[in-house]
Amino acid sequence: MERASPAAGKLNAGGRGAGDGHGPAGAAQPRAAGPGGAEPGELIGRALDFKSEGAQCYKDKKFREAIGKYHRALLELKALLLLLSQEPAGQRPPAAAAAAGLSEEQRQAVEAIEVDCYNSLAACLLQAELVNYERVKEYCLKVLQKEGENFKALYRSGVAFYHLGDFNKALYYLKEARSRQPTDTNVIRYIQLTEMKLSRCSQREKEAL
Predict the structure, then answer these.
(1) Per residue in 54-84, pLDDT tens?
(2) Which residue in 10, 11, 165, 179 has the most C-beta neighbors within 10 A?
(3) What is the mean pLDDT of the chain?
(4) What is the largest CA-CA distance in the chain?
């Protein structure tokens, strides 16, 4: 469900863990870093912790709890962006202030956490009895904005568009996924289903003329 961040070992030092003085996950409070609030390394470490907890919940098939953990991880990253955007930086826009306030290692860790969380949220939603395909699409497109060749996001985008009835977009994303993993049986099956739907739609259009 998740990939190990190369920065996880160093960045996690500021996160929650055994003997760090924090209580339960929901009660953890950021460590003060002057008037600016929590330190960037701590927020990133906490986000990594929540992401790992979400992955364990997913493995245990506790999908609702996993969704909550992934959202908590993303909230930590939003808090990070807010913290960095408040620094006096000559009226720089928030994104520029955030980029200036993080090391290259931290920027890579933040992006990896975002990609993993949104991918994992989409995976959790697909396990629901009634799937919110609009939300699955939303999360997958967030991943593709950062990693345009991400196989899981391409495949799940195709699945979401298929179930939302947008078969042209579904076929586009599914074929993009197939170009990354040509033998994946799920991708092949959905491409066949989508092409059948498009064929039927085309037939109906001809009959209506």
Answers:
(1) 999 999 999 999 999 999 999 999 999 888 8
(2) 11
(3) 82
(4) 73
Long-range CB contacts (within 8 A, 24+) of 147-150: 147/115, 149/180, 150/115, 150/119
How far separated are the first and last CA of the chain, in Å rounded? 49
For residues 81 and 20, what is the distance between their CA atoms, to the nearest angstrom? Answer: 24
State the Cα torsion 35-36-38-42 to the nearest 10°. Answer: -130
169, pLDDT greater than 70: yes
Distance in angstroms (rounded) separating the CA atoms of residues 198 and 143 = 27
Q: What is the DSSP letter of 32?
A: P
- Exposure on the CB side of residue 164, measured as CA atoms within 13 A: 18
And the tokens for 140?
């997958």
State residue 2's pLDDT score.
55
Q: Which amino acid is at 31?
A: R
